[in-house]
Amino acid sequence: MGPELLGRLVDEHAAALVLYARQWCAAPDDVVQEAFIKLARQRVPPAEVVPWLYRVVRNGALSSARAARRRNRHEAAAASRTPPWFVAAEGTGLDAETAAAALQALPVEQREVIVAHLWGGLSFEQIAVVAGCSSSTAHRWYAAGISALRERLGVSCPNRPATPK
Amino acid sequence: MSEPARDPEVSALEAALAGLPPAPAGLDRDRLMFRAGLAASRRPGWLWPGAAGVLGLATATLAVLLALRPEPVVVERVVYRDVPVRVERQPARETDEPSWGEEAGRYFQAREQLLGRGLDGVPVPPPLPPPPALSKLNGEL
Questions:
Q1: Vertex A117, ends A115 and A123: CA angle to 5°?
Q2: How far is it, in rounded angstroms, from Cα A107 to Cα A2?
Q3: ∠ at Cα A50 (A82, B46), nearest 5°?
């Protein structure tokens, strides 16, 4: 894999991958970095690079979370000081911190599917391969998570067309 | 997979969520690219480790076979072979022949006569010279 393609993948997917890894571990940057290095080490690039990266990041994040649980309290306290998940953006009608808090309140499997689909751009079939479930299960988790977010955030469509009376 | 009919409020929420950009990754891009290049150049090659493993295994196998080899049985057998012998006939030297003198010839001749004809065959000895006079002997004494 050439450096140009690798650099483009870093630029386009690193932030979403870090958000994805953040669902499990407190050091997502290291996990994502190791995933890119592992990708560079591949003699034959994977057929679908982005789902491959998500799968590697998922495995790395789960391993990192397991290792973090074994560490002492000091490191756990340091890890708990997590940076914000999103950057505040105007025009979305959502507060970044509120959205992150609502997302964090979801079960991890729902969070994983929502992050992979909305910010990672993966299809439900690709998410099913990454998460090791069926695509219908992935879709069901996604729908349940979106429904829960809708209730927590109380968001109504800002561009919702006026309902004809 | 066919998507079910979407609730517009759900679609709006999805759009609003997707519009929130994730916080930028805290990756050092240059450092990442350097490490990736380093990792790409250090791909593990399996040729030499594999060859070393095969050779090591072969060496160990041969060592075990050598240690467990039974002692060779020594069989001694006499083999007769026809070997051509070169005989060189050397001319007899005269010096090897026994030299018989004239007296020996006479001896053998007398023996043949004695064995063949008995005492009659014994040749008559030549007459002895006359003994000196007795008086002459007494005078000399």
A1: 150
A2: 38
A3: 105
Please identify which residue in the block is written with the tokens 């022949």: B97
Show contacts of A119-127: CB within 8 Å, 24+ apart: A119/A15, A119/A16, A119/A19, A119/A20, A119/B18, A119/B22, A120/A13, A120/A16, A120/A17, A120/A20, A120/A50, A120/A54, A121/A16, A121/A50, A122/A50, A122/A51, A122/A54, A123/B1, A124/B1, A125/B1, A126/A48, A126/A50, A126/A51, A126/A54
Contact between chains at B14 and A118 (C-beta distance less than 8 A): yes
Q: Can you tell me the distance from the alpha carbon of A81 to that of A33, in angstroms, rounded to the nearest whole number?
A: 20
Contact check, Cβ <8 Å, B10/A146: yes
A91-112 pLDDT, tens per residue? 777 888 888 999 999 999 999 9
| Closest partner CB to B33 (pick from A3, A17, A28) | A3
Question: Looking at the partner chain, which of A11, A83, A149 has a beta carbon nearest the beta carbon of B13?
Answer: A149
Q: Which of A76, A75, A80 is nearest to A22 (CA)?
A: A80
Q: Are B27 and A14 in contact (CB under 8 A)?
A: yes
Residue B22: φ, ψ to 5°: -60, 150
Gap between the Cα atoms of A29 and A19, Å rounded? 9
Does residue B86 have a pLDDT over 80? no
B25 to A41: CB separation less than 8 angstroms, yes or no:
no
pLDDT at A143: 93
